[in-house]
Design a protein that fits this description.
This protein is α+β, with helices and mostly antiparallel strands. Among the domains are: 3-180, 2-Layer Sandwich (Beta-Lactamase), CATH 3.30.450.20; 322-446, Histidine kinase-like ATPase, C-terminal domain (Heat Shock Protein 90, 2-Layer Sandwich). Helix content is 60%, strand content 17%. The chain has 9 helices and 11 strands. Helix 4 (182-282) packs across helix 9. The longest helix is centred in the middle third of the chain and has 101 residues, at 182-282. The radius of gyration is 56 Å and the shape is rod-shaped.
Length: 455
Amino acid sequence: MKLKSKILLLTVVPLVSATAIITYLGVSQAKALTQQQLALYEQRMIETRKQALKDQVAIAMSAIRPVLDNYILPEEEAKRQVKQILTKLRYNDDGYFFAYTQEGINLVHPTQPEFVGENLLDFQDREGNFLIKNLLIAANSGGGFHRYIWEKPPQMQQEHKLSYVELISRWQWMMGTGLYLDDIYDDLRNTQTKMNENISRSLFTVVGIMVLTVALVILLGLLINLHEHRLADARLKTLIQRFIRLQISERRRFSRELHDGINQLLVSSKFRIEVVSNKLERQADPASIRSDLIKAEEVINQTIQEVRQISHSLRPMLLDDLGLEVALSSLLEQFAERTKIQVTHHFTPNLNQLPEEIEITLYRLTQECLSNIEKHADATKVDIQLYQKEDTLYFECQDNGKGFDPKDKQEGIGLLNMRERLELVEGQWSLSSTESKGTKVKASLPVGIVPGELR
């Protein structure tokens, strides 16, 4: 996996993970809060229904109170009138009153008159709840509530019902009424459905925002990657152009040296040999012939020196034969001997194990620095340091010359060559100078890479 892909993953994965965790916690808390709200709503509705049942029973008691307090009426007539009043009392669409004896015999049941006179003490709902027994227990305890399942008119479907009962103390009858709870549970289900829909919408919104954010991050990554590729292509194109210019410049210099130096020397040698040949044909004085041969030999020796000098410029033989450290030391010794400038240096060990591209770059960099010092610095001391930290090799060249203000001088061909050579091996270059305090050239080269050849 490429580094850019890893960086993109390091950006997207934490974002997605954090969003997923926050969303999960938010949804969990929302659901928990929803359950709490629904439980509180159910409790409040049940309490409201309980109070309504108490009020309805109180109204029924008020309706039959005149009959109960009238002891002049015969007992059976009073019971008949109470039953009649309770049978006729209705409220809402499905509200009615019922009455039972302590033995569980039904006395009043307006919606299901077939139960009147039946003993329902052992009657159970579908959940096995002995509802009449439990209602009698609640009534005998001074009045109370009980929940069970009963048929709801007019469809007579079984629904949950909450009843409140009290005793008619004159005859110990259990009288009460009840309210069906299906509307409460319908409201709870509807409310829960709406809350779940809100949670789902919020979740989809968060997911949509997350997807949009991830897509935006990926898009930005692709745009940045594309931009970097374009910059890299432009930089590579510029670097290639500089490299070509460097090659052309060196080839032009090499051609000029061949034409102006070696070619002239060879022509001179040829001329001397032709002179000797003519003198031999004329049988001239041997001393004169010998003199011309000595001059021809001198010209040939000079030509050999020129060839060696050009060969050394192209690729120092010491660099191939004895390595970078010896080549640099020899270069510094020759510079000190020629210019009478004091040179000190310190080289890191194992310089001869560097790639060829790094070796030639360091050698040319040192050559260029020494050439600039000799031509422009008026220095008496030069110090060169070459050391390594981890995978980077550092070069420093410090002189005590007259220096200059970098802002006042344009970058010459020598400095440009330094920069371009370092760029070809992905190195970095810097120059600092102060008037009357000398100049310092610094460079850093990554030694873990093996770029294209540089000669």
